[in-house]
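Possible regression after last week's pipeline update?

I re-ran a chain I had predicted before the update to compare outputs. Posting the input and the new output here so someone can diff against the archived version. Not blocking, just want to make sure nothing changed silently.
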Amino acid sequence: MNDLPLKPILNWFDRQGWKPLPFQLETWRAYLAGKSGMIQVPTGSGKTYAAVMGAIATMLQTPSRGLQLLYITPLRALSRDIEQSIQRPILEMGWNLRVESRTSDTSSSKKTRQLKDMPDILITTPESLSLMLAYPGAKELFKSLRGVILDEWHELMSSKRGTQTELSLSHLRGMCPHLQTWAVSATLGNVQEAAQVAVGLNADPVIIETDIQRKTVIKSILPESVDSFPWAGHLGLHMLDELVSALDIEKSTLIFTNTRFQSERWFQALSYAIPEHTDRIALHHGSIDVKEREAIEAGLKSGAIKWVVCTSSLDLGVDFQPVERVVQIGSAKNLARLLQRAGRSAHIPQGTSEIFFLPTNTLEILEISAFRKGLNAGDVEVRRPLNKPYDVLIQHLVSLACGDGFEAKATLQNLRATVSYANLTDEEFAWILEFITQGGKCLSSYPRFKKVVLENGVYKVSDPQIARMHRMGIGTITSNQTVQIRYMNQTKIGTVEESFVSKMQKGDVFFFAGKQLEFFMMKDMVVYVKAAHKKSTVTPTWAGGNLAISDSLSAHLRHEIETSREGGTLNQELQCVLPILSAQKRISHLPAANELLIEVCKTREGKHLYVFPFEGRFVHEGLGFLWGYRFASQKNATFTISVNDYGFEILAPKDYPFQELFSEQFFDTQNLYEDIKASLNISELTSRKFRGIAQVAGLVFKGYPSAKKTANQLQVSSSLLYDVFLKYEPENLLLKQAEREALDDQLEVHRLAKTLDRIRSLTTVWKETKRPSPFAFPLLVERLNSRMSNESLLERIERMKQQWGG
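New output (post-update):
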């Protein structure tokens, strides 16, 4: 192939003393040939330059004015590093190209200037792209666009933000038919499907992969004995001394936690443990002010900061070559997540990633061994696109109507070229058009729900106030309402959820962003604080946090239990947990891979049924409800259900005949949806899902920047709409979506059906025990912890399933 257009790129690489890797050359040549596709290579292998240099070569060969390349990143925090990486060759080679970022952190003046004079390359987020399409003149703005790059596609694809990106791209392709799309990922198990979602159904994607091997070494930090090790919990602070002993303050280290609350507590503990090094330890999560996060990242790169306690805010993209090792506190629950985090260390091609794994409870020690087996086998989880989320489509269509407007026929054609909406029916599209123009069946009497008008075959928003309010609500992240935290001198510290600060009184002290802060007052959704001298361990909590083990990891977990049964040479994790497994075998039974263990135990509380499919807490949530319903349909009783990643418990009255009532019917999948809906208060669960859907669809206005509505106000508004739709318009598509999300996303019914099919084929082993076994005891602890909480089981499900963003 003619590589002449690549000469400027090759010259720059030569100046750096680099030689392009084969997958980079393959990508550039595919781009020059007009292809679209996906790059799937390990973290730290040079994906960014593989993705952008083909596009830059095209721009240098055939110069043009206006925006030519759009680079979409899932995190605005990544845009700065990406901009610097792309800017570097342009400045060093003197290429006549301009690179800029456009995110929610970009100043209003810069955004206004960009709309008049767009750069050649723009780095942005899905939300900012949607917002640009929501202004008149979008067609003129994007008329020169040649290519789109989707960075960290595995993080976007299976979420509503991924669907939002799909929709925006479908519209851009309608305006620019020759638009090329390249997705970039490191950790996907279904590469072909992911590539098709990225490029749309009208393109045949090219898959670029490499034989570069990045070895991941997992080193476990284990307790001296499991006898006194916790049965449950996720903080892991009892292992503080062991972690400090295992690490070296001179080695640059990222210490990953699974929640922001956990990161705050660990930073606090490490600061107390080694006070002489507090200036070399930092805290990084998405609720800390962006300027402070930037300073921490700069300190990590320069070597001034050695240890950073962080969350998923540092999972992605940011290039930290100085990082020598990574720590994972608590199970990552997901092979891809651990692989991504491990890749933050030795962030160079063919580097060896070193990750220290610190378990927070006894059975997580088994998970360490399962992770090692899974990564050695090359297993990575698949991620699926969402199926027709109507709320995202409604928001997208209103956004287009706020911009240049849209024609129904052409737009439907564009929508059906996406994977998510390929099966959108004429009836569904007609319902949505009526909903955004007339408010549907129930809201037609309220002018504010008649957002869009049809003029000369074009759907438009003619009311400037409606357009303004819609633009303020663009986005699909519907986390709890947050408020800013500032010092009295207006210096920003970060954000916390409104529910936390609403309980605080003047003088209360709390720990946030690594600082002791004293609450002074809250005004206009801003919390004003002062630096406090007295100590406090009160730490903000955020929605979300509990993750469930993936299907890939659960398979390896079951295999590790089988390995421990066989004896022979065991690795250090299995050796460590062997006393627990031996006790399980002595008290009850250690299940083989072809066995389903069910334990029955009587206590003063009643009769306990413990079932151990080892499929993850969300599958077990659904199974617990389902089996409880199927037992109760034969002999009525009141049950208490608790779950964890390894199994579930059904607590019944004393002498409840579990074994006598049990039959093959419990594995039946024929009436699964109906039985699940009957087994719990599905309307309450659906109502909770509808709250987020109402926000995304624009039915609930979140308020103006200086006067945001409280979480209670949003809840009341969405609940009122839900009740109205349920009573007068049960066929409402948003109601159907809420029920589908409650069943498919919340309780993972599809995976639950596969689990039922799997365990049906197993030999069921019933064991009556005199006391809870080691496998059962964590479920008992889980239930007791839940009882001490004021939240209901349904609230707990909602909290566990919410995904926080960094």
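Follow-up from reviewer: compared with the archived run. The longest helix spans residues 76-93. Marking as no regression found.
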